[in-house]
Amino acid sequence: LFSSLSYFGILEERYAKCFRIEAYVELGSWLLVTSSLLLMLQFHFVSSAAKQLIDDEKSNSESSKLDIEEVPSAAEGQKAVTSINPRFTDYYSFAVVKVQKRLSQDEVEL
User: Fold this and answer.
1) Contact (CB, 8 A) for 56 and 37
2) What values do phi and psi take at 65, rounded to 5?
3) Contact by Cβ (8 Å): 69, 82
4) How far apart are CA 37 and CA 41, in angstroms?
5) Is 67 left (phi over 0), alpha (psi -120 to 50) or beta?
């Protein structure tokens, strides 16, 4: 359209050019996106480890995969087994080290 107007002399040649932009993403933008994703993963890693630590400190018993609780409507002596949500050690088992504690003779007798 603009080239036709310029050809017929309605517009000057310098005004007959179309508006054109070539957009591109700078390297810094890609670094910003990548670093924000890595920060998100690191935050999830640390916060889930801290949550499990707090939960373990509140609990007096050993952590296990199943939680056993009394059911009031069940017959006497019956218990219900319910599952618990996945924990830090379930998601990031590669990042933890299993340590076996050796009990002394006094602790075994208790």
Assistant:
1) no
2) -75, -25
3) yes
4) 6
5) beta
Q: Looking at residue 100, what DSSP letter applies?
A: P
- pLDDT per residue, tens digit, the chain (110 aa), is 777 888 888 877 777 776 666 788 899 999 999 999 999 999 999 999 999 888 888 874 554 444 455 445 555 666 666 677 888 888 888 888 877 777 666 655 55
Report the distance separating Cα 37 and Cα 32, nearest Å.
9
Q: Is 48 exposed, middle or buried (0-12, 13-18, 19+ CB in 10 A)?
A: middle
How many CB atoms are located within 10 Å of the residue 88 CB?
Answer: 21
**Torsion 85-91-95-100 (CA) sign:** positive
3-state class of 81 per DSSP?
strand
pTM score over 0.85: no
82: which strand partners?
A: 67
Q: Are 70 and 79 in contact (CB under 8 A)?
A: yes
- The residue behind tokens 């076996």 is 100
